[in-house]
Amino acid sequence: MIRKPLRPLARILQARSNGENPDTIERENIQIRHEEMRDRMRHRAQSRLLFLGLLFIVGFSLVGVRMTVLASTEVVEPRSAASGTRIAAQRANIIDRNGKVLATNLITNSLYAQPHLMIDPERAATELAALFPDLDVESLKKDFTSKRKFLWIKKKLSPEQQQAVHDIGEPGLLFGPREMRLYPNGRLAAHILGGASFGREGVHSAEVVGTAGIEKSFDDYLRDPAMEGAPLQLSIDMTIQSVARRVLHGGMRLMNAKGATAVLMEVDTGEIITMLSLPDFDPNTRPALVTAGDPSDSPLFNRAVQGVYELGSTFKIFAAAQALELGLVNPSTMLDTKGPMRWGKFRIRDFHDYGPKLSVTDVIVQSSNIGTARMAMSIGAPRQQDFLKSLGFFDPTPVELVEAPGAKPLLPPKWSEISTMTISYGHGMAASPLHLAAGYASMVNGGTGVTPTLLKSTTSRVGPRVISERTSAQVRTLLRDVVARGTASFAAVDGYAVGGKTGTADKPKPSGGYYDDKVIATFASAFPINDPKYVLVVTLDEPVETSGREARRTAGWTAVPVAAEMIRRMAPLLGVRPEIEHAAGTGVTRTKF
Prior knowledge:
single chain, Beta-lactamase, 19% strand
C-alpha cells in the first residue's frame, strides 16, 4: 500500500509561490487520511457483524429444526445397553374364508426394572404391587434393594397400565417396545387358533411363537419374512362359527352336558366351516396346561379332534353302506332282529323289541343293533376293516392342527367276530367327531373320500371312490328316513331336508367297564339331504334332558334338537335355499321356513 505524503513538495512550493500557508495542505491531507481510515474500519466492522448475524441465524435454525424433530418423534425409554442379535417379531395375520381377521399383532410395551437407577425402590415396589395384584410386594422390595442390574416385571402392558406405571415417576422403571399376538374374536375360534407366546426376548423386542393349534402348525409360515406378511387364510367362517357356538353353548347348558363339540364340513372339499369344543378358553389369556387328572376336563382339550369316543349307532350307516355296496342286501331286504343275539358269553340286544324281522331301511330307521350285527357278519372282519380304513378310521385325522396326530382311533387288539358285530353299531372302536364328519361326507357326496382341512381351498379335490354313486344315493335315502320317521325326528327343520343318524354310547370308566348313567350322545347329519352340501356332527358329553318325568340321555332327545337349531340358523347364512312347495291347482307358491 502506497501512503500519500502529508506535505507533497510540489504543492508546498506552489503554495509558497502563491503566498499561501503550506501547513493548510498538511492538515487537509491528515483529515483525508483519517476519513479513509474511518471508512475502512466501518466496512470491516459491518462485515464482521454480518458474518456473526448469519452465524447466529444458522445456529438458531439448526436448534429449531432439532427441537421440531424431537417434538414430533414418539417418546421412547433410553436403551440400557446395545442390542445383541436382532429378534424378528413380525408375524403374519390369520384370516377366515371371508377375510375377517382371526389373529394379528399389536404394538405394546414390556416393563422391566434397573434397581441401581432407582431413587426410592420400596415406594416403587409398593405402588407396583397396588397396580398389579399378582405381584408380591415383599419380593419386589427384596429384588429392588438387591445388587441385581436387571429385572423383568411384566411382559405385556396395556396403555392404561403403562401410563399408571409412568405416573409413579421412578427412573428405574423402564419400558421396552414389543409386539404381542391379539385374537380379536376371543373364545370364538380358540381351539382352532391355539395361541402364541414369547420365544426369545430382548429389552426392545420379543419373538412371537405359536404354542398350539394353527399358530403352532404354521409357525414357520407365519414367521417367514419371504412371505412378506401374506396372511394365512382358513376355511372357517366366523359368522357361522359365532352362530354355532351360541347354539351349542345354550344346548350344552340346557342338556346339562359336561362338554360339547360340533363340526360343520363341506361334503365335497372337506373344508371345515365350523369346529367348536366346549368348554373353551380365550387365547389372549391362554390358561396353563393341565398335567394331572382327566385331560378332557381342561378347557384346552379339543373334543372335536382329540376327543376319541365310541360314537354308537352313528356307525350303523357304514355297515349298511358296505352291505349295499357289496350287493349283500338292498334297502328292502329283511333281516332277523329277534333278540337277544348270542355270541359265546356275549348278548346283543336292541333298545326296544322291534319284532322278529326288519328291512335294512327299518334297521337303520329304528337303530337295531341286532340287524346291524347281522349285516356285519355277512360282510366279515377283513372287508369291514378295509372299508373303515378307506374312510380314515385307522389313522389320526390329517387336519392341520398339532393336536391331531396324537388322537389316533382306538381299535380292538384282536378284531374277532364279536368285534366285527359291536363295531358295526359303534362299540368296541373309538374315533373323534372329526373322523365321523369326514366319514359321513364320503357317504353322502356321491361316494368319494374326503380329507378334512382347515385351509381354504382354491381348487376342487376329488378323493378316491369308497362307494358307488348308487349306494351313496341309497344312503342319503336311509338318513332322510331316520329324520322323517325314526330316532331323529326332532331334526326336522322347516324348509330344509335334513338326513342323519343318532348315536348313544355308554361312557367307559377309567378303571374299566361302562357307566350306567353317563353317555356320549352324537347326531351326524347332512343337509340338504337330496343334494348334500354340508355335514354337521354334534356330540354332547354326559347330557341329561330333564324336562319330563324321567331323565333322558339318548341322542334323539339331546344332541338332535341342538343340531336342528344349528341347521335352522346356519342354513340361510350358508346360502342354502329353503324348499319351495307348489300347491296343486292353486297357482300359489308356498315356502317353508
